[in-house]
Amino acid sequence: MDDPLSSTFAALADPTRRAILERLAGGDATVGELAEPFAMTLPAISKHLSVLERAGLIAKDRDGQRRHCRITATPLKSATSWLEEYRRHWEANLDHLDAYLTRIQGPASPTSPGAPTTATTATTSHPEDQS
Amino acid sequence: MDDPLSSTFAALADPTRRAILERLAGGDATVGELAEPFAMTLPAISKHLSVLERAGLIAKDRDGQRRHCRITATPLKSATSWLEEYRRHWEANLDHLDAYLTRIQGPASPTSPGAPTTATTATTSHPEDQS
After folding, report:
1. B72 CA: distance to closest CA in chain A (Å)
2. Deepest in the core among A9, B30, B51, B121, taking most CB within 10 A?
3. If you average pLDDT over every residue of chain A, what do you get?
4. Which residues of chain B from 56 to 95 reach within 8 Å of chain A, CB to CB?
5. Is the Cβ pair A128, B7 closer than 8 Å?
6. Is residue B12 within 8 Å of residue B80, measured between CB atoms?
7. What are the chain A neighbours of B5 within 8 Å (beta carbons)?
């Protein structure tokens, strides 16, 4: 888990860390301010902040005793790029499948390019029930 | 790490698992076919596939002895939505900062709405060097 993209996704794999990022998206904050909305100790929050910092998602600026946290954008851009690239591949594959199905079933109605019906074909995954 | 979004990001936090998804984006494959490009044992690949399956990112269809894997889209959509929503928040925050800086520094040149220069302000994070 040493490559930057893996570190980014690993850092995002926690609801508290995502909430911290959402809070920081609204403006810089001190560690104390970030801890406030969570029923967590400062050390627990600091641990989450360290994970975010190691992943390069946030940076800390010292201001005397207080440390301000701010978000940094580059890792999130890489994560978004990967997901978008992946989606492009996957949707192209679905288009091929759709074209194939249309060919073997015969044309039913005029196909509109990029029609959303294409994408729904494979979205019938099992609903997640991870209790 | 039980919520679906955390499971998705955790599953994506590994280069082998991302490569498996990229391969499956090109079409369904058997476990053996998926293992081929990796210098890994079948049990090691199976473990990665289990993580992807638990996160709902792939599904397995039995075809006699062979098991075909295919990707499922819903969790990736949630992950992409979260990143996009977050980026929207964050960019709005940058726009406010930009407007504030323009106000205190005085107008230098006519600002074009949504100019990319705004976004580059905070991208000067430390380059990741996690060797």
Report:
1. 6
2. A9
3. 79
4. 56, 59, 70-77, 79-80, 82-84, 86-87, 89-90, 93
5. yes
6. no
7. 15, 18
ipTM of the complex: 0.71
For position B121, what pLDDT does the model report?
42
pLDDT digits (tens, 9 = 90+) for B77-99: 889 889 888 887 777 766 766 77
Give the confidence band of A121 by pLDDT, cuts at 50, 70, 90.
Answer: very low
Shortest CA distance to B29 belongs to which of B66, B65, B57, B55? B66
Q: Using a CB-CB distance cutoff of 8 angstroms, which residues of chain B are in contact with residue A74?
A: 123, 125
Instruction: Provide the pLDDT for residue B16.
Output: 96
What's the token pair of residue A2? 């040493």
Nearest by CB: B79 against A5, A71, A83: A83
The answer to whether A74 and B125 are in contact (CB under 8 A) is yes
A59 forms bridges with which residues in the sheet? A70
| Residue ranges of domains in chain A | 4-73
One-letter identity of residue B4: P
- Cβ of B128 within 8 Å of Cβ of A56? The answer is yes
Closest listed residue to residue B98, CA positions, set B87, B107, B88, B86:
B107
> Each residue of A72-96: pLDDT tens digit?
878 888 898 898 888 877 777 667 6
Take residue B26 and report the two structure tokens written for it.
């090109």
Instruction: Say which residue, B25 or A127, is predicted with more confidence.
Output: B25
Return the CATH number of B4-73, one of 1.10.3720.10, 3.40.630.10, 1.10.10.10, 3.40.50.1780.
1.10.10.10
B108 half-sphere exposure, CB direction, 13 A CA radius: 6
Q: From CA B120, how far away is CA B116, in angstroms rounded?
A: 7
